[in-house]
Amino acid sequence: MCNLYRMRASTQEIGQLFGAKATEGLNAAGEIYPGYPGLVVAEGEVRQMTWGLPLILTGKQGQKLKPKPVNNAREDKLHTPFWRDSFARRRCLIPVSEWAEAEGEKGRMTRTWYAMPDVETFAVGGLWRPTAEWGNAYAMVMVDGCEQMADVHDRMPVLLRRESWEQWTQGTPEEAFALCRVWDGGLVVDRTAERWAKTR
Questions:
Q1: Which architecture, in CATH terms, is 5-54+66-195?
Q2: Which end of the chain, C or N, has fewer beta carbons within 10 A?
Q3: pLDDT tens digits for 110-135?
Q4: Residues with Cβ < 8 Å from 144, sequence gap 6 or more?
Q5: pLDDT-based confidence at 47, cuts 50/70/90?
């Protein structure tokens, strides 16, 4: 599952690429982690939202704990209560330059980065909803990993080709769900010596 990605394009560049209204003053770091702000394209606008929908947990004494960001939605869970309404009514495009997976033995894991060939910015299928805890929040939709990812992870984001963007955002839930499939194109893979866990 994706817990880290990069976005190098500016807000204005994202707006131009996705044909969306881009408001000045939106902020997101170059590396985006769960619980932190990122940029998405929703309802024709570039918007800043928190990556991860809040999951409210209960402690041993019944007390409410700090919400946990659930940043990935498996495609086989999209029809469950936690995701159903957002997938049906509020799908978005998540601009991404590349995403990372942890590779190696525990305690010594490094970052392996994945990107689409020949494009600086691509779209990942997402969904969003307003939350009382963090304002608007979004999640990436995940499917089975393709062959190029098999030795690192068995899941990956839904990658959307340009001609599928409108089907994802404007189509029926059934039409959007048809795009939740194993990626059949190539990937650029960059195995690095960067430690997975480092100071944010």
A1: Alpha-Beta Complex (3.90)
A2: C
A3: 999 999 999 999 999 999 999 999 99
A4: 154, 155, 156, 182
A5: very high
